């Protein structure tokens, strides 16, 4: 049987296991799927003076995790530069934040070529390679140039954009051609998929037949395969966590007030300033909720070497201070704002006891927090999910209270609606959301993708 090889920029630590404390969405989704014998390859997360170019291999539960270090120029051009200052803003529709420099793109190509050199030495001819996310778009093309003819699939975890946005990126065509070096290309939603097919038609010069791009000698199959979570596992963790001393302390600190929760990386795609403004408007326009609600915002610091993230952090510090300064009373502070990372088990418990899950990104590929919040609820007395219409999850979670995150008044009104919603309506909405989250799981996501790759 063909061996599965996973490639992603971040590689989970071997013992993070299912839902381990430091595992991110991708790691959690894949880790329950990877069988013994799988190879997982990527960046070690370390930046060193002289990278050896030799992978460090660690075994964990039969899986080999192979990682390499980056030099500081590569880190600046590949990770800080092209991946996170050009592609990330572009693919989140933020052209105003996009910074492009040719040397960054060259660094991006060079790191991908280096990854291809190292990976190919570890591959067997019949291996099936599954590459993840925007850091590694040109990897397959580099592998093909070096003679690899096996199956390679690619999954984009973040949004794809319409042609009128993509064309702003000077090497847009190179990226499209690189995507066409795969056998299967996967997207989170139907919208991203059709935008990709449209871009392929416009920029690549290849014919598009249905969901396939026909290149010289290869057919690239494009699919929509929304990522999910281990809903049962997360629901169990949440129910158990709700009884822990940590959650008990949180409950006591609330003094019977309703908890609204938001949790994500501190990233401009997440719409944090708009959300803070929305919360401020709730307090200004609906004084009946004063002293009755606390918003806990967890915004884990991220990509701190990228200037836009530093600026956003300063802005949020200011906004948080402003909201609490304006509305706090001596024994009530409406906003609790934390920039540390919170362990998944604790988060699960916080979701479980929250009355509102506030997930309002300006754009998001999927957003697994929305799914986790739903899975964590007690079906007998569920909290309300307020969801941005621009999160990929909105295609599936249609029974959330939907908002346009650019409109702070809409966020305020949705929060007020959620605080006043009857038990019956909460249960009805939650039952539908729960079915969606329990149907489209992490296991299903992996199976759909790998079946498509096998069948190619
Ligand atoms: C998003 C991306 C991932 C990335 C993660 C954390 O979820 O889709 O590819 O790993 O953010 O960002 P970081 O820059 O720390 O890897």
Automatic annotation (TrEMBL):
<dbReference type="GO" id="GO:0003825">
    <property type="term" value="F:alpha,alpha-trehalose-phosphate synthase (UDP-forming) activity"/>
</dbReference>
<comment type="similarity">
    <text>Belongs to the glycosyltransferase 20 family.</text>
</comment>
<protein>
    <submittedName>
        <fullName>Trehalose-6-phosphate synthase</fullName>
    </submittedName>
</protein>
<dbReference type="InterPro" id="IPR001830">
    <property type="entry name" value="Glyco_trans_20"/>
</dbReference>
<dbReference type="GO" id="GO:0005992">
    <property type="term" value="P:trehalose biosynthetic process"/>
</dbReference>
<dbReference type="Pfam" id="PF00982">
    <property type="entry name" value="Glyco_transf_20"/>
</dbReference>
């Amino acid at each position: 049987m063909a061996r599965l090889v996973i490639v992603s920029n971040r590689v989970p630590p071997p013992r993070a296991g299912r839902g381990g404390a430091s595992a991110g969405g991708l790691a959690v989704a894949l880790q329950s799927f990877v069988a013994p014998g799988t190879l997982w390859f990527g960046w070690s997360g370390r930046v060193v003076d002289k990278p050896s170019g030799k992978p460090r291999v660690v075994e964990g539960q039969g899986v080999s995790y192979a990682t390499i270090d980056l030099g500081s120029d590569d880190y600046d051009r590949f990770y800080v530069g092209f991946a996170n200052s050009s592609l990330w803003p572009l693919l989140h529709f933020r052209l105003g934040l996009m910074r492009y420099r040719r040397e960054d793109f060259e660094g991006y190509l060079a790191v991908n070529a280096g990854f291809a050199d190292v990976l190919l030495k570890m591959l067997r001819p019949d291996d099936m390679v599954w590459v993840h996310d925007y850091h590694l778009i040109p990897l397959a093309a580099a592998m093909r140039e070096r003679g690899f003819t096996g199956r390679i699939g690619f999954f984009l975890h973040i949004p794809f954009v319409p042609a009128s946005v993509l064309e702003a990126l000077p090497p847009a065509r190179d990226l499209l051609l690189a995507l066409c070096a795969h056998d299967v290309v996967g997207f989170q939603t139907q919208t991203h998929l059709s935008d990709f097919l449209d871009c392929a038609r416009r920029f690549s010069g290849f014919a598009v037949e249905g969901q396939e791009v026909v290149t010289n000698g290869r057919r690239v199959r494009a699919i929509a395969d929304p990522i999910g979570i281990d809903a049962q596992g997360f629901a169990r963790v949440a129910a158990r966590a709700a009884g822990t001393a940590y959650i008990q302390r949180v409950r006591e600190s609330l003094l019977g007030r309703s908890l609204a929760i938001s949790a994500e990386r501190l990233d401009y795609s997440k719409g944090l300033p708009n959300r803070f403004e929305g919360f401020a408007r709730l307090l200004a326009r609906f004084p009946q909720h004063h002293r009755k609600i606390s918003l806990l915002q967890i915004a884990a610091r991220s990509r701190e070497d990228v200037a836009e993230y530093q600026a956003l952090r300063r802005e949020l510090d200011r906004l948080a201070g402003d909201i609490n300064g304006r509305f706090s009373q001596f024994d009530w502070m409406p906003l609790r704002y934390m920039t540390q990372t919170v362990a998944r088990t604790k988060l699960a418990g916080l979701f479980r006891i929250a009355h509102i899950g506030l997930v309002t990104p300006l754009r998001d590929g999927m957003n697994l927090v929305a799914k986790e919040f739903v899975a964590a609820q007690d079906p007998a007395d569920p909290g309300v999910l307020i969801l941005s219409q621009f999160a990929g999850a909105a295609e599936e979670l249609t029974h959330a209270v939907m908002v346009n995150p650019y409109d702070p008044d809409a966020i305020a009104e949705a929060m007020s609606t959620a605080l006043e919603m009857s038990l019956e309506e909460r249960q009805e909405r939650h039952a539908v959301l729960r079915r969606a989250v329990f149907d489209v799981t992490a296991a299903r996501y992996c199976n759909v993708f790998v079946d498509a790759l096998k069948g190619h």
